[in-house]
Amino acid sequence: MSKMRLQFRNGFKKHEPQVFEIITFPKFGIGQRAFLIQTQEGNILWDCISFLDDATVEIIKSLGGLRAIAISHPHYYSTNSRWSEAFGGVPVYIHEWDKKWVVYQHENVKFWEGKTFQLWEGLTLLHLGGHFAGAQILHWSHGAQGRGVLFTGDILQVGMDNKTVSIMRSYPNYIPLSSSHAKRIGQVIEPWDFERLYGAFQDREIEENAKSCVVFSLQRYIDWLSLDDAAA
Description:
This protein has helices at 54-62, 80-86, 143-146, 179-189, 210-226; strands spanning 9-16, 19-25, 33-37, 44-46, 68-70, 92-95, 109-112, 116-120, 123-127, 136-140, 149-153, 157-158, 165-166, 168-170, 175-176, 196-199, 205-206. It is of the alpha+beta class. A hairpin with a 6-residue loop joins strand 3 and strand 4. Helix 4 (179-189) packs antiparallel against helix 5 (210-226).
C-alpha cells in the first residue's frame, strides 16, 4: 500500500446531495467505484475499492465519517478490514451466503441472513444473488429527492446506453443467468421504489425512471432466453 501511494490517488465526485463517488486514479483493478452516502443517522460506504490513503480518510471524516460499510459481492472484499479500522472499526455488512469468500473474517464483519436487512431508517440491503449466491444491493429511500435510489455494483450492470441493465453469472466468461434468476430478481425489487440507479463503474448510472428500465431489461432478458431459434 505504501508504494501505491506514490502512484495512485482517489478522486471524489458529488452526484447529488449526500452522494459521493470514490474512484482510484489511474485505473486500478477493474476500475470499480465506491459510494459515500450521507444520512442523518450516519454515513455508509457502499462497496469498497482497494486503495485507501490518508487523504481519503481525512476527506471522508470531514464529510461525517462512517457508521458502516456494505459490500455488494466478493470482488470488492479485498481491503475491507483496512477501511473498517480506519474509521474506528465500523461494521462491514456481507450476506451470509458469501461467507466462504471472505478470506479474512475479522471481528467487524457482520453476516446477515434473509431477503432484506435494514441498516437504519431509509437504508436497506436486498439479497439478489445471481452474480454470486450472496450478492446484495442497497436501497436508499431518501435519495433522488425522496424518489429512491439503488446502488447495485455489477449485480445489475448498467448498459452503455445508461437506460438498461444486464445480469450475468460471469462477465469475463460470458456466462448468463437463467430466466428463473431474472424472474426472482424482478420479484425482489418489485416492492421497492427507485428513480435512480448507480452501477459499478464510472458514468454508469440511470438518472431517471430507473425502476422501469430495470423491469424492461429483466423482461427482455427472460424473453430472449425463452425464444426459439426458429422464431428469432
